[in-house]
Structure formats: C-alpha cells, structure tokens
Write a structure and sequence with these properties.
single chain, about 300 residues, alpha/beta, eight-stranded mixed beta sheet, about 25% strand
Length: about 300
C-alpha cells in the first residue's frame, strides 16, 4: 500500500443468509483508493457495488478479507473510539434523496444530526454557523434550514444530503448512485457541485453508479463489477478507449450517444458469461498494461496483452 492510499480493500467478501444457505454478494474484491481521487464502481443492479460501500461504512458485516483506512484495519471488531472516529471521517451520500432524509425534521436538524451525535460544536452559535456554511457550500441559502424536506425538489434534497455529509468534515465520501433519482438536467449540476467540493476541500470519492456515461466525467479510475467480482479496472479514459473484458464492452455499448445517426447504427452487445472457457484454467486478476487490470484466465490475458 503506497503512502497516498487512503482506503485499501483486500479480498473482500460479503454474504447474506438466504434460507438455510448463504448468498455471496461480494466475492474477493480488492482495490486501493488514492487520496484526492474519484474512484468509481460501475455495474448493473445487483452486482454488489452498493454492498461494498455499505461494508466500508460497517453497515454490512464482511465474511472474509479486510478493509484498511489510512493503514489501520476498520473491518471486523474494532474498539468504540476507532469506530467513532471512522464515522466522522467517512460519510455516505445515499441514492434516494427523499428516503434518506427524515421528513418530520427540519433541515437545520437533519444537517446538524452528526454534530449533535459527536458533539462537534462548542455552543449553539457555532452549530448554526456550521450548518449555514454547509448549506452555502452546496448552493443553498441558510434560510432553508427552517423548512422540511418535502418543500424541496429532488436536486435540492440531494444537496441537503451532501451538506449533511460535508458538515462532518470527512476525508472520504461514499456516493451511492447520488444522481440516478434526479432529472437529467439536474444531474450535471450535482456532478459539477461534487467536482468543485472535491477540488476545494481535497475530498476523496468512492462513486457508485450503473451509468458509464456519467462516471466518465467525474472519475479518475473506474472499476467494473459483475456478480460480486471485479472484472476490469483502469483509468477513466483508458477504460473507454481500450475496454478489454466482454462485460465492460457490453456496458459501453449501452451508453447512449448524442449523435442520432451514430446511435441508430450502433451495435448493442449482450454479455454472455458462457463465452469464457475456464475449464482449462481459472480466472485471475492480472495487470495487462500499466494500471489496467482485467479478470481472465491465462489464455485470455495473453490475447488482451497482444
């Protein structure tokens, strides 16, 4: 693990009970998150990307592997003070901006909840000042603090969710599909906001999404996940220019293009897992070029390198 690594996930596995059996949602996922970057996890619904984010937040217990934050283990059993510190330094932005806000509470309390829980203010004046600054930072006026969530649009509610996370002054933000519930016209505003906050505050993002066309414009690196396993990881532009794994190519073929003529002629690719012949060798995580990793067996890796 290098000095600039803020989060390290090693061989992560997450299982859930399913009757008398266990369902494996995440299987052997490993990646490093560098300080100050936006690292995106992309995959279809049910692929396990949200489960990874919640495992990092200690919402879901892990069945194998470990998670390190700034070199210290934060998975499994840790002492109360370490967990308390982790809750402050890692915050999460949830997918549904309405369901994640307490509709019976005013915005002032919603944004302040973490401050109350961790007593991160000296007096009432400092608490109000922190709430006002958080609201201003996300493009909302302080007067909104006296209103309720139902009085706001979807985009405004998501900004409130971001303000609630920012007021804790975190180092890492896990954004779980933060724009998927928003109108297309509002998505760019939220993306631009997140990019500005990253630049101004030196934040690190784990950005979870299913839309490759969105993550291209916010990500430094992108990891593609399929049925709980990473299948490809590369820099954002490298992944779009040279996708190697068939599942990544299938995802990219579904990205809509702004030119209607090109879109009409575009060929959509359906991913069929049976195209892999793993009878002659199990797939492994391999680096085919600098910073470009793919899951494949020895024969596939030779072909991709060629």
């Amino acid at each position: 693990m290098s000095d600039d690594t803020i989060l390290s996930v090693r061989g992560l596995g997450v299982e859930f009970p399913m009757g008398r059996k266990r369902f494996t949602a995440v299987d052997g996922v490993s990646f490093d998150l560098r300080r100050g970057e936006t690292f995106s996890l992309v995959g279809e619904s049910g692929s396990g990307k949200t489960t990874i984010g919640r495992a990092i937040m200690r919402i879901h217990p892990i069945s194998k592997g470990e998670i390190l934050f700034e070199g210290k283990r934060v998975s499994g059993r840790i002492d109360a003070s370490a967990e308390r510190l982790l809750r402050q330094r890692i915050q999460m932005i949830f997918q549904d901006p309405m369901a994640s806000l307490n509709e019976r509470a005013k915005i002032d309390y919603i944004v302040s909840e973490g401050l109350y829980n961790f007593r991160l203010f000296k007096d009432e004046a400092e608490r109000r000042a922190k709430v006002e600054k958080a609201l201003r930072d996300v493009g909302l006026i302080p007067e909104f603090a006296s209103r309720f969530p139902h009085e706001f649009s979807g985009g405004q509610r998501q900004r409130i969710g971001i303000a609630r996370a920012l007021v804790m002054e975190p180092e890492l933000l896990i954004a779980d599909e933060p724009i998927s519930a928003l109108d297309v016209s509002i998505r760019s505003q939220v993306i631009n906001l997140m990019n500005r906050l990253k630049r101004d505050r030196g934040l690190t993002y784990l950005f979870i999404a299913h839309d490759l066309s969105v993550v291209r414009f916010i990500s430094d690196r992108i990891a593609v996940i399929y049925r709980g396993r990473l299948v490809e990881l590369a820099g954002a532009e490298e992944l779009f220019a040279h996708p190697l794994h068939p599942y990544t190519r299938a995802l990219l073929s579904a990205v809509p293009l702004p030119d209607p003529e090109v879109e009409r002629l575009k060929k959509h690719v359906a991913y069929d897992p049976s195209i892999h012949d793993y009878s002659q060798g199990k797939p492994s995580w391999s680096e085919v070029s600098s910073g470009h990793f793919v899951l494949g067996n020895e024969c596939e890796i030779r072909g991709w390198k060629a």
